[in-house]
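hi! just following up on the protien thing from before. the input was this:
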Amino acid sequence: MDVKIYEFMMGASAFVITVLGFMLATTILPKDGLEKLRKARNILVPSYFVLALLSLVCCFTGYDRCIEPASTLFVASFQALLFTMSMLVFIRPGEVRWSTVFRQAGAITVAGIALFISLFCFTDYYLWFFYTGIAAYIIQLIIYTRKFTLAYYKTVQEVEDYYDEDEESRLTWVKTGFYSALAIGVMAISVLFFPILYKFFVPLYVLYYSFMVMWFVNYYRRMKFAIPVIADAPLEVKVYTNPTETDFGETDKSVKEDKEEPETIFLTKEQLLKERLQKYIDEKEYCEKDIPSSIVVDSFGMSQSFFRQYMKDSYGMDFRPWRKELRLREASRLFAENPGYTIEEVCELVGYNNSGNFNRDFKKMMGMTPKNYCKQIYLKDTNAELKASVNFNKNSRWG
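and the predicted 3d structure came back as:
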């Protein structure tokens, strides 16, 4: 490998990673539910500066064909640990135990020290240590990949259960981030045997460090919808109040003192729920996004069993499909009354987070895609205008 190119890349990467380290250190994260994310950030920041320092040292010492493979393997193992744990903290902070992380970091450090001792003191055994280290690194990547995959799909399932919608599209960036890191980690193995690949490897891992900073900066905005699920953060919802009804359908003292018959109480609750649902419809609260159905039901002040029975008797369906139907009917109205609206705009206005889910549900209910529905409305309006124009011409000619 050309020494000048190597020195330039190491010096440039040292500068960029130092800047990124300062950016990451000054990132302000909200307090609620993100304690482990802040701890992950605090662990990553020193690693940025250590890597920058190592790159700077390499810049001044130049490329050494004996030392560089060992240091690359050592740094790659640490990167795999840090980035995997950071991506896990993004989706399942409760499953990341820092005692385990520090133990693994200690094991990598001991293995790295043993590798360098063999390089300088027991050269006859160095290759044995080196290839054993590569095998251990490959096993490390396999274990981390399995751990992340299981955690990712578990989180997707929990978030979808919480919102009763397909939410994987909003979590895909986490999966993409992990597998990008994995690809760079696999490339590190190739660099050990083909040093010419350094000219591609160094820019790639610097780019990944940049993305990691961006993800930390934008984490709350991207993942605010999932924090109530993964970090036990409370979600604010609108709660209806009524002087005759308290939590879970229990009547207050004035109602109890009247000693109403059970049937009368049932009818009172039924009427109250009917009014609340009508208000929910009138104010179009079904268009609010990221509000799970269970929280909406609780906000009505009725027990889950009473609410389910009422929905079945009155609408013949559960709350979730009922709310979805309201959203889609509102979407059809918006398309008809606002021809200039795009599908993405209507999707957002009616409470959908993903246009793919919106297109699928709309087609299932209306028998056609939103695009075809808009075309049909356009053709209908055009035909109506043509018909009106013909009638006007006839009246003008014969009138």
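The longest helix spans residues 123-163.
Confidence is low (pLDDT under 50) at residues 233-261.
cheers
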